[in-house]
Design a protein that fits this description.
The complex is a heterodimer of chains A (102) and B (163). By secondary structure, chain A is an all-alpha fold. Chain A is 75% helix and 0% strand.
Chain lengths: 102, 163
């Protein structure tokens, strides 16, 4: 029998893997991939809560729709920034992008 | 149900590990697509049919394709070494283990108030009803956010005029 705990732990593991990718990748696009995975783990949490705690009212799933919207907006703006950065500096290596580092 | 859950969970986690593990950025993007498909299967298991469709359409169909386009526009030369880790792998491993351990401990010790009611058979209509009644203002704000993101992305990525 698969319970809520299974889904929550799975989502926590996925969040951890996404966090690891976002923290350790040099390439900015690799970092975006990690962030997408973290947002997906959150979505999995929301849908699992919606299914197991309030199966009749789909508030969790509605919230997941908003998360997907934010993720889509984030990836569009993020890639635009990456392309602009590449045009200016010929690199998107996150270690070398220290323009705002004090 | 149980077997499908474990297969989908294993697929998702293995694909996610592949995504952070490989050094080729295109392979990472493909592994991410696989991982997102696994999550779509889990959505179907959670009887969230609409979200599973949205997941495949937006994430696998749009986000991953957009990422591949970004890679194509940006990455030149050797693709084999395009997704290398930085020097914080040790610290990041520690942080991730602490975070996941803490989450798992909190999840397993919490007494969840699980409901035994059956899920609604079709989710499209209830979600639409919530979006257009109780959550109409967040819905409009989300639309505004998408508009702002589209305009911002166009302005940022537009060819810069030579000075």
């Amino acid at each position: 029998m698969i319970t809520l705990t299974h889904y929550l732990v799975l989502a926590a593991v996925l969040f951890g893997i996404g966090l690891f990718g976002a923290l350790t990748k040099r390439n900015a696009i690799g970092i975006f991939m990690g962030i997408e995975l973290m947002l997906n783990a959150v979505n999995l949490n929301l849908v699992a809560f919606s299914r197991f705690i309030t199966p009749q009212v789909l508030v969790g799933q509605t919230f997941a729709v908003f998360t997907i919207v934010v993720a889509a907006a984030e990836i569009a703006v993020g890639l635009a920034i990456a392309i602009t950065l590449y045009r200016e500096r010929s690199t998107i290596n996150a270690d070398e992008l220290d323009l705002m580092k004090w | 149900m149980t077997v499908v859950f474990w297969i989908a969970a294993a697929l998702t986690v293995l694909a996610a590990l592949t995504m952070v593990g490989v050094t080729n950025l295109v392979h990472s993007a493909l592994a991410l697509a696989l991982s997102l498909l696994g999550i779509a299967v889990l959505f179907i298991l959670l009887s969230a049919d609409f979200l599973a469709a949205i997941q495949i359409l937006i994430y696998v169909g749009a986000v991953v394709v957009l990422l591949v386009f970004g890679i194509m526009l940006i990455q030149r030369g050797d693709m084999k070494e395009s997704n290398l880790p930085n020097r914080y792998v040790g610290v990041a491993t520690l942080v991730v283990l602490v975070v996941v351990g803490l989450f798992s401990w909190l999840i397993s010790t919490t007494d969840w108030q699980v409901s035994t009611a059956a899920p609604v058979p079709s989710t499209v209509e209830p979600i639409a009803r919530l979006l257009f009644t109780r959550y109409i203002i967040p819905f409009e704000v989300a639309g505004l956010l998408l508009l702002a993101a589209v305009i911002g992305a166009i302005i940022l990525a537009r060819e810069v005029k030579s000075k």
